[in-house]
Write a structure and sequence with these properties.
The complex is a heterodimer of chains A (126) and B (185).
Chain A (H helix, E strand, L loop, with lengths): L5 H15 L8 E6 L2 H6 L1 H14 L5 E6 L11 E4 L5 E4 L4 H13 L9 H7 L1
Parallel strand pairs in A: 1-2
Antiparallel strand pairs in A: 1-3, 3-4
Helix pairs in contact in A: 3-4
Chain B lengths: L3 H14 L4 E8 L4 E8 L6 H6 L16 H11 L3 E6 L5 E8 L11 H11 L5 E8 L2 E6 H8 L8 H19 L5
Parallel strand pairs in B: 1-5
Antiparallel strand pairs in B: 1-2, 2-4, 3-4, 5-6
Classes of the chains: A alpha+beta (126), B alpha+beta (185).
Chain lengths: 126, 185
C-alpha cells in the first residue's frame, strides 16, 4: 500500500535531479491537448496519457503537456498542438495514442513533424 | 461519453474555468447499487438565471458559440439510469454537481477509469487547483488530497515532476481498486 512516507524519498530524489537540470527552460516544447467535451468524447484522455508516458519513458524534461478548451473544430478532435520554443506551431488532428507516440518520436525528438497527421494534410484531402 | 469517469473529467473542466482553488470529488456505491457522485468546487459559482438554464445544451458561458453539452449529456445519462443530475450554486460560493444513477439499471454507464481522470486533471494542472476525492463502497473507503502531498513534498517540487506523477498515478489506481475493484468497471 502506498503511503505518504514514501514521498520523503521521492522528495530527495526529485530535488537532486532538479539541481542537476539546467534551469533555462527557453528551449521547452509545449504539447497542448484539446480537453473540452468534444475532445474528451473523442478520446483525448488516452491521448494525453500516451504523451505523458512517452515523454517520461524518453526522459524528455523540457516538454510540458497542457490543455485547452474547444476551438470549434469538434469533428477533428482529439486535436493536439505542438508548440516549439520559437513559437512555431504544428496542429495535429484525430490523434490517437499510437499517433501521439509517433509525434513524440518523430517531431519532438527528431524534429520532423509527422506531416500526414497535420491539419494541413487533412484539409488537403477533404 | 463512454463512462462516468469521462463525464467527470469533462465536468471538472467547468470547475477549472470557474477559477476553483479546490475541486472535490465524492464517489459512493451504496449497498443497494445506487451510485452517488458529487463534484464540488469553490470557484466563482453561478447566478440563479444561469443556474436554471445550465443543464440545457444551449447554455454556456463561452462567447465563441452558443452550445455547452457537458452537464446536459451527463444529466441525460443519469436519467436514463433511473437517477438524475442536480446542480447547486451561488455567486462566490462555488458549485456542486450531484449525480445519482442505479448501477443495476441496464442503461447505467460503467464507472470507468476514475484514477486516469484524476491523474489527467492533476498532471495538466500541477500548480493549481488542489484536488481531493473520497471513494466509498461496501468494500471500503479511501481518501486522496493533493494538499497532503504538496505538504509532504515541501516547497519547490511541483506535482508535475515525473517521480511525483508516478507516485500519484499508482496511489490513485490502488485506491480505486481497493474500493471498487471487481464490482464495476
Amino acid at each position: 500500500m502506498k503511503s505518504l512516507s514514501e514521498l520523503e524519498a521521492i522528495r530527495q530524489k526529485t530535488l537532486e535531479r532538479i539541481a542537476l537540470r539546467k534551469e533555462d527552460r527557453d528551449d521547452g516544447v509545449r504539447i497542448v491537448i484539446g480537453m473540452a467535451t468534444c475532445g474528451i468524447a473523442a478520446g483525448a484522455r488516452p491521448v494525453m496519457a500516451a504523451f505523458m508516458d512517452e515523454i517520461d519513458r524518453r526522459h524528455l524534461r523540457n516538454v510540458t503537456v497542457t490543455q485547452t478548451g474547444c476551438i470549434g473544430m469538434c469533428r477533428l478532435e482529439p486535436m493536439v498542438d505542438v508548440i516549439a520554443a520559437d513559437g512555431s506551431k504544428v496542429t495535429y488532428v484525430k490523434v490517437n495514442p499510437e499517433k501521439a507516440r509517433m509525434i513524440v518520436a518523430d517531431h519532438i525528438v527528431n524534429g520532423h513533424p509527422v506531416t500526414e497527421y497535420t491539419i494541413g494534410n487533412y484539409a488537403d484531402q477533404a | 461519453m463512454r463512462d462516468w469517469s469521462l463525464h467527470l473529467l469533462d465536468l471538472a473542466e467547468n470547475s477549472l474555468r470557474a477559477g476553483a482553488g479546490l475541486v472535490s470529488l465524492g464517489v459512493s456505491l451504496e449497498e443497494d447499487g445506487r451510485l452517488i457522485i458529487t463534484l464540488s468546487d469553490d470557484g466563482c459559482g453561478m447566478g440563479p438565471e444561469l443556474l436554471r438554464a445550465v443543464t440545457s445544451p444551449f447554455a454556456t458561458t463561452r462567447s465563441t458559440r452558443k452550445v455547452g453539452m457537458g452537464l446536459a449529456l451527463a444529466g441525460q445519462n443519469a436519467e436514463r439510469a433511473g437517477g438524475g443530475l442536480h446542480v447547486s450554486s451561488a455567486p462566490g460560493r462555488g458549485t456542486t454537481v450531484e449525480i445519482e444513477a442505479d448501477t443495476r439499471n441496464i442503461d447505467c454507464l460503467p464507472l470507468g477509469d476514475l484514477a486516469q481522470t484524476f491523474f489527467s486533471l492533476i498532471c495538466l494542472n500541477p500548480l493549481r487547483p488542489d484536488f481531493e476525492w473520497r471513494l466509498r463502497s461496501p468494500r471500503g473507503e479511501e481518501h486522496f488530497d493533493t494538499r497532503e502531498i504538496r505538504q509532504a513534498l515541501g516547497e519547490g517540487i511541483s506535482l508535475g515532476e515525473p517521480e511525483v506523477r508516478e507516485y500519484i498515478c499508482s496511489l490513485l489506481t490502488e485506491q480505486c481498486e481497493t474500493v471498487f475493484g471487481g464490482i464495476m468497471q
